[in-house]
């Protein structure tokens, strides 16, 4: 078994990102529980702006509204920010329901 994820990532940066302000506790296999702050999210992944000592390939498990527990892998890390990719794509209807709960300001929500 290898230490990190073996990632073969296509460029998903063009996916619609939604700005959010969502604190979350992530489970890391060797560091235990980590406090993180999600600043934007898409159906493919999310960005945190207070990245603890994470490295590319690290795996975490977080809990999101509607979606529940989901694994994510660190794709990039720069300064205090990190981008993580979900292990699976979130279904559109679940994602939109989740965004409505995470974005209390209706002006931030995209029109359907």
Structural commentary:
With 112 residues, this protein is mostly beta strands. It has one helix at 92-102, and strands at residues 18-28, 32-41, 45-48, 59-64, 68-78, 81-86. The relative contact order is 0.21. The mean pLDDT is 84.
CATH superfamily descriptor: predicted glycosyltransferase like domains
Q: In total, how many domains does the architecture comprise?
A: 1
E-strand count: 6
Structural class by secondary-structure content: mainly beta
CATH topology: Thrombin, subunit H
Helical content (DSSP H or I, runs of 4+): under 10%
In whole angstroms, the N-to-C terminal distance is: 43 Å
Percentage of β-strand residues: 35-45%
In spatial order, strands of the major sheet run: 1-2-3-6-5-4
Structural features:
112 residues; mainly beta; Thrombin, subunit H; six-stranded antiparallel barrel; 1 helix; 6 strands; 10% helix; 43% strand; globular
In short:
The chain has one helix at 92-102, and strands at residues 18-28, 32-41, 45-48, 59-64, 68-78, 81-86. The protein is 10% helix and 43% strand.
Task: List strands and helices in order, with pairings.
Elements: E1 18-28, E2 32-41, E3 45-48, E4 59-64, E5 68-78, E6 81-86, H1 92-102
Antiparallel strand pairs: 1-2, 1-4, 2-3, 3-6, 4-5, 5-6
């Amino acid at each position: 078994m290898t230490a990190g994820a073996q990632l073969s990532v296509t460029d998903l940066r063009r996916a619609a990102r939604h700005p959010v302000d969502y604190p979350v506790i992530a489970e890391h296999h060797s560091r235990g529980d980590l406090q993180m702050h999600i600043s934007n999210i898409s159906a493919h992944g999310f960005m945190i702006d207070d990245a603890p000592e994470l490295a590319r390939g690290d795996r975490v498990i977080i809990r999101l509204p509607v979606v529940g527990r989901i694994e994510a892998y660190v794709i990039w890390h720069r300064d205090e920010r990190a981008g993580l990719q979900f292990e699976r794509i979130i279904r559109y209807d679940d994602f939109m329901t989740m965004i409505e709960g995470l974005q209390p300001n209706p002006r931030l929500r995209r029109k359907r």
